[in-house]
Amino acid sequence: MKVSIASDHGGVDLKAFLVKALSGAASVLDRGPADKTPCDYPDMADKVACDVAGGEVDFGILVCRSGVGMSMAANRFQNVRAALCHTTEAAVMSRQHNGANVLCLGADIVSAEYAAEIAKAFIATPVDETDRHARRRAKIERAGRLSDASGLMKDDPEVFAAILAQTEQEDTEINLIASENTSSRACREAAGSVLMNKYAEGYPGKRWYSGCLPVDAAEELARKRACELFGADHVNVQPHCGSAANMAVYFATLKPGDTIMALSLDQGGHLSHGSPVNFSGKIYTIVPYTVSKETETIDYDELEKQALEVKPKILLSGASAYPRTIDFKRIREICDKVGCLMVVDMAHIAGLVAGGAHPSPVPYADFVTTTTHKTLRGPRGGLVLCKEQYAKALDSAVFPGMQGGPLENIIAAKAVCFREAMQDDFKEYARQLVANCKVLCKTVADRGYRIVSGGTDNHLFLVDVKSRGMTGKDAAAALDAAGIVVNKNTIPYDTESPFRTSGIRVGTASVTTRGMKEPEMIKIGTWIADVLDNIADTAVQERVKREAKALALAFPVP
Ligand SMILES: *Cc1c(COP(=O)(O)O)cnc(C)c1O
Question: Domains in the chain, start-ordered, CATH in brackets?
């Protein structure tokens, strides 16, 4: 067992006594001070709090004259729970009930001998894992999510109200928006960090501003990790979003008027794949391809025929609402026959690719673009991977081609996300994400709802609600009233307007991140069918909303 200990000048003697007294029971790391030269207690608390927060030691002990200042300072750190205890009983309870990991002591308040007894009791007592204590400790952590923004309560209550509302919504609703997820605290910490303050036009080592060493380190980490995670030659982590990532590839490879073939928007494509209202459709010639009317999946032979006729400069694959595995190897063959660039926009499935739950496009494609905030579970942003030969063209397309200074705080959060995605538990998340989606899909299908393409291979599926006499717009509104959040979505060969739609899109990324598994998917699927079967029945919506809220609260947001 390892214990880190420090004091201020008022606590030096007691600290020295405790170092000796504990040396039999633990390996003690003495963080100072060595003498009674006046020092500031927060500086000393920081040292021990960092040891504990960073996992260097099992426990911390802090001593000042009252112990109060030390406990206040230490409790500012995430993952530190500092307890000011002047009896052995309080020390034992602080461990059992509260999971305290730092003990604060007042040298003017307890004798040295009794302080040693308190410290020994503290480090010898295990945390009580009984449900009610675990639940209350979890609530301390949950309060921590709000405390991240608690300065705004005073500084800007209107903005704080929006953050509070989002926090409550996440806590109490079932989020099935296929393009959303729930990012980690680590990711949010990096995104909200001081790296936001730095201008860094250019790339690591070649910036247009001074003082870029810290952000260079963050961006290098992001680049190295992204290449390792996806097995890519080169990456640009600066695009502000997925649309910007696509723009960067077009700017790097095309001239205005050149032709791109991409999946039609109303069949699952994306705005930035050539919608007439988007820059992509305004600058380039877009030829959409479609899915087969019978199977509602891509017919690769048809795609090949069309591509050979159209001869695009880019054959773009990837989608926002396509529930099936995409055959990247086959698309590479088509691109080779046509002699065009293969670009894959894996925005939706990047987390599945990273976690090994969907084949990777990276070995096949010339360029792969993605968002970082969908199944990949990072901050809102984009990136582009490419083969070495395109690295220069890509980098100059992003800067100075289309962006100024990169968002280094967001790039740091991307680095955090890539590291998380390299861990074993991310592979398990990706596997469970798909397993959950299949079960949720089957539960809804078993209640008589037609599923586009007959099922799903990935993190989302599309329900044809028109086949049961309602629009996607009305279905999504009824589910929203029941605390289940999905979006209306067009389905292939939709006869409704894009505003009304015949379908809803359902995704399992956020609920999987929260730890839900197959039994919860069956519950949620049953609620979806209950609400849609009785779309005008507000009593059903009320009942489901209560049950959904209880389920959401049982799976706390990280
Ligand atoms: C979400 C998405 C994007 C763009 O994302 P933004 O970050 O919102 O610009 C691009 N392509 C596809 C396929 C997407 O699903």
Answer: 2-139 (3.40.1400.10), 190-421 (3.40.640.10), 425-554 (3.90.1150.10)
